[in-house]
Specification:
single chain; alpha/beta; six-stranded mixed β-sheet; five-stranded mixed β-sheet; 15 helices; elongated
Length: about 425
């Protein structure tokens, strides 16, 4: 089955609202084994919308419309699409009853009632989080049309609870994907390492870049999820074999999620001392639900005096080697363990830029230390020879710290050659 998505709304075209709908719908279609061939955004204009819908139903088996189902005059999706499909609108009393109940009224205005007028003979998808129902019907061309509300908070539950089961009845195949996450090796070298594996048709392998890391998506199509998953596993294992311990997870989306899980599993606690990252590492860890059981504290010791007072970094170290040095990072991590009583302490110090660099210590030079109270390991991030943003340097430094913790907790060499 070939599909396309049309998202409706001038606010999307103007960039006033980010179009999340296409990504949400596309992910669900992929899981159903439906081929998404086209996606488009159309403003609140009848003629342009009619042209887009006519084109879509002439070439696709499935058209999913998002947005434009509300009560205002610029909500034109339903009327325009129904006309293109040769359908008239009729009042759907159960939907009107839900709208009345939503507003706790016995009667609503004509523009609110407008939402309950749906294409004749359609399958109705109730809106459990708003007023505009969705629906599915067939155009005269044979194309199945599904109309969904635009707000993601309404679209997502309607899609998962009603539309996906509706579409599953028609699907012969399912698609299963797994993401193999890699830190410490870039997209290009990893792709070169796995080049011959990317020629397969089922399962397939594709590289994707993330901020400072990458992942490989393994995808298979089969009659059941279990069959598709079994097809993916040998390829996943081969990726692990070739890339080695730079693979940090399969389907755990972030390093911080994995680190929190591993800390819980090992019964360990972590504390962070940060300079150039300004608390970003602590934030990323505490963004993970349940991190309070494994994260003790974080200190942003930007000034040298703060490093001395809070972490007991020696003045001699700071004067002799400077704040940005492996010696200072080491003492920050060790001081954090003593100060917090945690099992593990991280120390990060560096030059995030865009100013502050010198020939000896350029922007992007960052030292990261991990201490368990007995041993301390230090790694270095060096500039890559091209300009990177302050945000990029900070993010990558926090990621490298997380990866060092991940390596420690899984018994791998902590001081990897990043």
């Amino acid at each position: 089955m070939n599909a396309e998505i049309i998202s409706v709304g001038t606010e999307l075209l103007l960039g006033q609202v980010v179009n999340l709908d296409t990504a949400i719908v596309a992910q669900e279609l992929s899981g159903l084994g439906i081929n998404l061939l086209y996606s488009a955004v159309v403003g609140d204009n009848v003629d342009r919308l009619k042209h887009a819908v006519d084109t879509a139903i002439s070439r696709s088996d499935l058209l999913i419309m998002t947005g434009g189902l509300g009560p205002t005059t610029d909500d034109l999706t339903k009327e325009t699409t129904a006309a293109c499909a040769g359908k008239k609108l009729v009042l759907h009393q159960p939907s009107l009853d839900r709208i009345l109940n939503y507003f706790n009224e016995k009667k609503v205005s004509s523009n609110q009632e407008k939402q309950a007028w749906l294409p004749e003979g359609c399958t109705v998808f109730q809106n459990d989080n708003g007023t505009a129902p969705g629906c599915a019907f067939q155009a005269e061309s044979g194309c199945t049309i599904i109309m969904l509300p635009g707000p993601p908070s309404e679209l997502t539950p309607m899609l998962k609870n009603y539309v996906v089961p509706f579409l599953k009845k028609e699907q012969e195949y399912v698609i299963v994907s797994h993401n193999v996450h890699i830190y410490g090796r870039g997209e290009a070298p990893v792709a070169q390492m796995l080049d011959d594996l990317m020629d397969g048709e089922n399962p397939t392998l594709a590289p994707y870049a993330k901020e400072g890391e990458c992942y490989m998506r393994v995808t298979a199509k089969a009659h059941t999820p279990e069959e598709a998953d079994a097809m993916c596993q040998p390829l996943i294992e081969e990726i692990k074999r070739r890339v080695g311990d730079f693979v940090y997870s399969v389907d755990v989306e972030t390093l911080e999620e994995l680190v929190v899980f591993l800390l819980k599993e090992r019964g360990k606690k972590l504390a962070c001392a940060e300079s150039c990252t300004g608390g970003l590492l602590s934030k990323r860890i505490t963004d993970v639900p349940g991190s309070s059981s494994v994260f003790d504290m974080g200190c942003v010791t930007y000034a040298n005096q703060a490093k001395e007072d809070l972490l007991s970094v020696s003045r001699e170290t700071l004067e002799r080697f400077g704040a940005v040095s492996p010696e200072t990072a080491r003492e920050m991590a060790e001081g954090m363990v003593r100060r917090s009583g945690s099992d593990l302490g991280v120390g990060i110090t560096g030059i995030a830029g865009p100013d502050g660099g010198t020939a000896q210590k350029p922007v992007g030079l960052i030292y990261i230390a991990l201490s368990d109270g007995e041993h301390t390991w230090v790694t270095k991030r060096s500039p890559l020879g091209r300009t990177k943003s302050r945000e990029w340097h900070r993010h990558c430094a926090a990621s490298q710290a997380l990866d060092m913790v991940r390596r420690y907790l899984t018994g791998l060499p902590v001081e990897a050659e990043y």
